[in-house]
């Protein structure tokens, strides 16, 4: 039974890494060569928030760090800044995942929304301090709003397609500890 639990956790981690790779590659494919007039949601950020809020054991901090540091490098963002902010957000979600399980979905959505707002503004603030060129504030807020709005869709897709849901109150880990 313990081997099955380990296999399931590693399989879900592999699925997450595969999804992260597909999303990152989709960002890199040039679909239009004109400058963007609208900002698409950050699906990878919404995905990691959903998976950490629902099943934090599927996405440990080292996977989050590796995925977002790699996306920083591939998307030519300042290396490590966005990754560090995402790690702070996911760890805040991870420490409260039991509370989120007992809350209604709107409370979870609000908590994640507040976290996304904080790390977005922190990113802009740090980039402004070091005088790094940034996207216009309107595009950044548009992307933040789109990410917040797509969060319920990502929750539904994670549940329906990948079985990522809050654990039931009686679910046990391999050594008998409650999740």
Give the structure's gist in a few sentences.
The protein is mostly helical. The protein has seven helices and no strands.
Structure in words:
The protein is mainly α and 179 residues long. It is globular and about 50 Å long. The chain has helices spanning 2-28, 43-54, 61-74, 81-95, 97-102, 105-129, 137-162. The model has no long low-confidence stretch (mean pLDDT 88). The protein has one domain (2-25, 38-162). Helices cover 70% and strands 0% of the residues.
Annotate the secondary structure layout.
Elements: H1 2-28, H2 43-54, H3 61-74, H4 81-95, H5 97-102, H6 105-129, H7 137-162
Helix pairs in contact: 1-2, 1-3, 2-4, 2-7, 3-4, 4-6, 6-7
How far apart are the termini? Answer: 16 Å
Radius of gyration: 17 Å
Give the overall shape: globular
pLDDT averaged over residues: 88
Strand content bin: under 5%
Helical residue percent? 55-70%
* Secondary-structure-derived class: mainly alpha
Number of domains: 1
Counting H and I runs of at least 4 residues, what is the number of helices?
A: 7
H-E string: HHHHHHH
């Amino acid at each position: 039974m313990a081997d099955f639990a380990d296999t399931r956790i590693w399989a879900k981690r592999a699925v997450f890494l595969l999804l992260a790779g597909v999303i990152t590659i989709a960002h890199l494919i040039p679909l239009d060569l004109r400058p963007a007039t609208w900002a698409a949601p950050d699906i990878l950020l919404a995905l990691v928030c959903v998976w950490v809020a629902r099943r934090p054991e599927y996405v440990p901090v080292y996977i989050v760090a590796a995925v977002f540091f790699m996306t920083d490098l591939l998307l030519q963002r300042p290396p490590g800044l966005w990754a560090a902010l995402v790690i702070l957000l996911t760890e805040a979600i991870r420490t409260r995942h039991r509370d989120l399980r007992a809350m209604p979905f709107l409370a979870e959505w609000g908590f994640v929304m507040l976290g996304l707002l904080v790390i977005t503004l922190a990113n802009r603030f740090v980039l402004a301090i070091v005088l790094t060129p940034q996207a216009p504030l309107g595009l950044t807020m548009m992307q933040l709003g789109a990410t917040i709005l797509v969060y319920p869709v990502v929750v539904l897709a994670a549940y329906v397609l990948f079985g990522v849901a809050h654990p039931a109150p009686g679910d046990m880990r391999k050594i008998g500890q409650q999740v």
